[in-house]
Amino acid sequence: MTERTTAVVLGGSLAGMLAAHALADITDHVTVVERDVLSTGPEPRKGLPQARHVHQLWSGGARALEGLLPGIVDRLRDAGAHRLPVTTDVVALSPHGWYRRWAESHHMMLCSRDLLDASVRAAVLASGRVELLQETEVLGLIGTHEAVKGVRIAAHRSASPAAPLERILTADLVVDATGRGSRAARWLTDLGLPEVQRREVDSGVAYASRVFRAPEGAREGFPIVNVQPDPRAGKPGCGGVLQPVEGGRWLVTLFGSRGGEPRVEAEDFLRYAREDLRHPVIAELLSFAEPLTDVAYTRTTANRRHYYERMPVWPENFAVLGDALCALNPIYGHGMSVAAQEAVALRDAVRRHGRRAPGLARRIQRAVARPAAAAWDLALGMDVFYPGATAEGPTRRDRIVAAYVGRLLHTATGNGRIARRVTDVTSLERGAEVLLTPSVALAALVGPLKPPLSGPPLTAEELKAAGLR
User: Fold this and answer.
1) What is the topology classification, in CATH, of domain 205-298?
2) Beta-sheet pairing, 29-33 with 6-10
3) How many Cα atoms within 13 Å fall on the side-chain side of residue 216?
4) Whole-model pTM above 0.85?
5) How many CA atoms does the CB half-sphere of 52 hold within 13 Å?
6) Cβ neighbours, 10 Å, residue 301
7) Would you kindly state where each structural domain of the chain is located, as residue ranges?
8) DSSP 115
9) What is the Cα–Cα distance from 329 to 10, expressed in whole angstroms?
10) Within a 13 Å sphere around the CA of 415, how many CA atoms are in the beta-carbon half?
11) To the nearest 10°, the Cα dihedral for 50, 56, 60, 61?
């Protein structure tokens, strides 16, 4: 008789639910431990304040998500999510000029974070193979420096007044997906393991977001509009994103680094978009849009990575993924895609090596670190150059990589082939090695093949739909 296997996933947000589903195919029973109460529909969640700001699922993440939950993309679209071709339906001002709207190379899925989380959660729990413990705190790991055996948990009395306040949940595999607030580093030192190597790059960016009812003609088929800051300018970087979401709405996030932060007051929202961004196009588009919410505000945007895969020793039966492993500045839109790719990596590592294989946890940790590392490099290429982002400033490697990538981005404003290669990487479809081929390097040396655009490449029909003509 085959021995029954169990897994515990800490955290019930997107990364946790996807990890739980990945394990449900290869483990007899999976329990998700979540401190909040999770709604059955697309509603705001107390423990996820960043959900009020723009999110996007790049095609690399969408493919991973669909591979885990077949049919989920169609269900999201049926619920109102938008599929936008990249760069066809992207109007973006880069630090190097306006991008042209080239033929589709990849795509984004756009919707509110509430809708995405609710759709994924419903699909995962519908299988009946994942148990959800809500209103339950994780107190620490059970085990030794050699192997984790489970976790200590405590149920809130309101959730289970008759249950013991504290108990032990044993498991053959424990996965930490508790996000930015993860205590995994401390838990591991408590078990006698060395401290993990850690790096933080904090651009000091603050976000202010608001939802608008789009003008009637612009509620379907409108492009995403992105005004990016230029960290090379030596002054605070100010930017903004207008993103179509479900229900004929626009979700607009304005952001600025230290000394250039947006304010929380609603009356300052349009002024910031008009006067502080490098171009007033977002403010102009909002002229005929109706505000539906107050301003949501956050400063929790630092890039923070724990190099668990480099630990000299690693306990069996434990893994860390999602924001608990690598938290990224949300403005680049990679967090959700990385979480989906990490869940695929988790599933594939267990399938490849076998649930009882010695050293499996270390193999898992190295596997999930790969998609995190790719997104980390993309985020640092911009954020490390903001004043005060790190105590020591950009490293020599940071400067060399940024100089080359900057040249590529400049070339991409007027060369469709290079724009395609760049979006291969930013969409998390391919690794950065595609940018290092001789033909790409030669194109970067030559530069753009077309002259720069003088303004945002919105069509006459789009301007009319937004009420600007």
Assistant:
1) Alpha-Beta Plaits (3.30.70)
2) parallel
3) 0
4) yes
5) 22
6) 21
7) 6-55+114-200+302-381, 205-298, 382-446
8) H
9) 22
10) 21
11) 40
H or E segment to which residue 256 belongs: strand 249-256
Residue at 160: amino acid letter:
S
The dotted CATH code for 6-55+114-200+302-381 is 3.50.50.60
Strands (E), 374-418: none
Q: With contact defined as beta carbons under 8 Å apart, do 84 and 108 qualify? A: yes
Which amino acid would we find at residue 10? L
Give the pairing of strands 318-320 and 206-213: unpaired
144 within 8 A of 315, measured Cβ to Cβ: yes
Amino acid identity of 63?
A: R
CATH topology identical between 6-55+114-200+302-381 and 205-298: no
| pLDDT tens by residue, the chain, 469 residues | 356 789 999 999 999 999 999 999 889 999 999 999 888 887 777 666 667 888 899 999 999 999 999 999 999 999 999 999 999 999 999 999 999 999 999 999 999 999 999 999 999 999 889 999 999 999 999 999 999 999 999 987 665 566 557 899 999 999 999 999 999 999 999 999 999 999 998 888 899 999 999 999 999 999 999 999 887 666 788 999 999 999 999 999 999 988 899 999 999 999 999 999 999 999 999 999 999 999 999 988 889 999 999 999 999 999 999 999 999 988 888 999 999 999 999 999 999 998 888 999 999 999 999 999 989 888 887 788 877 778 777 888 888 888 888 899 999 999 999 999 999 999 999 988 999 999 999 999 999 999 999 999 999 999 999 999 8
